[in-house]
Every structure is written in structure tokens, then in C-alpha cells.
Amino acid sequence: MKRWRKVEVAQTLLSAIIILTILSLTSYYALPSIFRPTSPEAVRLVLSVPSPNAVTIDRPEVVTVYAANAEGKIDRTRNDTVELTLDPPNSGVRLSDTRLALVNGEATLTVISSKSELVTLTATWVEGRTPLKSAVVSLNFLHV
Q1: Does 111 fall in a domain?
Q2: Which residues does the chain have with pLDDT short of 50?
Q3: Residue 1 falls within a domain, yes or no?
């Protein structure tokens, strides 16, 4: 059996440490939910529309705005204020409200249009505990 020199032992130990470090870091970033539990604190707004690709004209459509955490779950502790804007601003779409107060993390509004058009609805955080990332959804109003 071969006797190991001190240099070979040191190189082998260093190699093992480097390999273990790489494996640990890979596991940490590949499996974040196991190693880093996500916070229940909301980080973004979400706009939920039943069928944004085909909204029937002259029929009110309910849109839900909610504050979501990193996993997409509603943060029921949020009671923030959210502003809604349309692009283009001169479209024929009418919103039931342009400012909403989230209650237990969510709020609803209705949108309606009397003509076929494509608009972008944006929900922007105005005030509350911590800023939330804005949400954007495209609504395609069609004759059905």
C-alpha cells in the first residue's frame, strides 16, 4: 500500500471540501423551499380575471386584486390601497373603481366595455405596510 505524502493528503482534503461546498450550494439554491421557508408577507399584487383573452363586450367582468407572497398565496394581513389604470387611457373600458382598499388582502372590481378592444389593466400599490410589486393583465373585449 502506498504511503501518502503530506501534500497529497492536503490536496485530497481540499478537493473534498470544495466538492462538498459545491454540492451544498447547489442543493441550497435548487431546493429553496426546504432550506429557506418563504415568508407569508406579501411581495406583489396579482390581478385575477376569469378569461382575460375573451371578455364579452357589454357584460361586466369581475376582476380580483390581491396581495400575494412569494409562493402566490394571499396575505390576509394586508389592507393596502391600490390604484388601477388602463392603457390606452382613452379606451371605452369603464372600471367600477380606480382606487381600491384591500380588505384581508383582496378586493374586487368590475370592468365593462361597449366595443371590441384590447386594453392593459395595471394595479399599482399606493399605500400600506410595505410596497408591493405592480400587476399587469391584458383584457381582450370581443363580440361573442
Answers
A1: yes
A2: 1
A3: no
Q: What is the pLDDT of residue 5?
A: 83
Domain, as residue range, for 68: 44-142
Instruction: Tell which residue, 45, 63, 69, 68, has the closest CA to residue 124.
Output: 45
Give alpha helix (H) positions in the chain.
Answer: 6-30, 32-35
Q: Is 16 left (phi over 0), alpha (psi -120 to 50) or beta?
A: alpha
Q: What pTM value is reported for the model? A: 0.72
Task: Determine, yes or no, domain membership for 80.
Answer: yes
What pLDDT, on the 0 to 100 scale, is given for residue 36? 57
CA distances from 71 to 31, 40, 41 (A): 14, 8, 10
Rounded distance, CA 111 to CA 125, Å? 19
The CATH number assigned to the domain holding 111 equals: 2.60.40.10
Domain count, the chain: 2
Distance CA 17, CA 13 (A): 6
